Amino acid sequence: MALRKFFVGGNWKMNGNKESLGELISTLNTASLHDETEVVCAAPSIYLDFARSNLDPRISVAAQNSYKVAKGAFTGEISPAMIRDCGADWVILGHSERRHVFGESDELIGQKVAHALENDLGVIACIGEKLDEREAGTTEEVVYAQTQVIAENVKDWGNVVLAYEPVWAIGTGKTATPEQAQEVHEKLRAWLRANVSDDVADSVRIIYGGSVTGANCRELASQGDVDGFLVGGASLKPEFVDIINARA
Prior knowledge:
The protein contains eleven helices and eight strands. The protein has helices at residues 18-30, 48-54, 80-85, 96-100, 106-118, 131-135, 139-151, 178-195, 198-203, 217-221, 240-244; strands at 6-11, 37-42, 59-63, 90-93, 122-127, 160-164, 205-209, 228-231. It comes from Haplochromis burtoni (Burton's mouthbrooder). Belongs to the triosephosphate isomerase family.
C-alpha cells in the first residue's frame, strides 16, 4: 500500500460555469492538501484550458472522455492530442455514464485507452457492475471482462489508474461498504497478478468511486487495496479537500 501514491480524482461531469468553477479552483488553490496525494480535476472539455490556466500546478487536469483517433471528421469529439495541447495530463475513459448513457462498448473503450496512452495521456480507466449484476452474483465476471479489454490495450501500466465504480453507487447516495470496496479491489489486484504480472498488480493504483463523501472517505481510505478515489458530486464542494486529505 505504501508503495502506491494515493490518487484522488474529481470528476466535475457536466457541471459548473466559469464563476462557480473559479470559486472551486480558488478553494483548492488555497487549501492545505496532503503532499503524498496526487490530485487530478476532470473538467468539462470546454473548460480544460480555463482549469489548467487557473489551478495550482500541483493539481493536474483531466478530460472526461476522448476519441480513438488523432483528428478527422468526428463532429463533437476531442482527441488526446488536443487535450495535451490544453495542458491536461489525464483522461477518464470507460466511465459508466459513457457506457450506459451513451452506449460505448468495451471494444471502443479499449481503442480509446490505447490511443490515449500512445499520446502520453494518463488514463483513469473505469469499470464496475450494475445493481442487477451485483444482485445476480456476477460482479467479478463483469469487472474482469471490462478489465480484460482495458489490459489488452495497455503496454505501460505506469500511466494507468484503474477506477472501480459500482454503477449502483454513483450519484445514488449508496456507497459500497469499505468491506465491499476492499473485496472487489483485492480480487482485481489478484486478477492483474494472474493475467498481467506481479509488478503491475503491486504497483497499479485501484481507486474507488461511488458516492464518496467527506464523511465516509477515511474509512474507505483505510482499506489496504483502496488507493484513492474518483469523486463525483462531492468534488464540486469544499468537502473535496477533506477527501483529498483522507490519508493525511
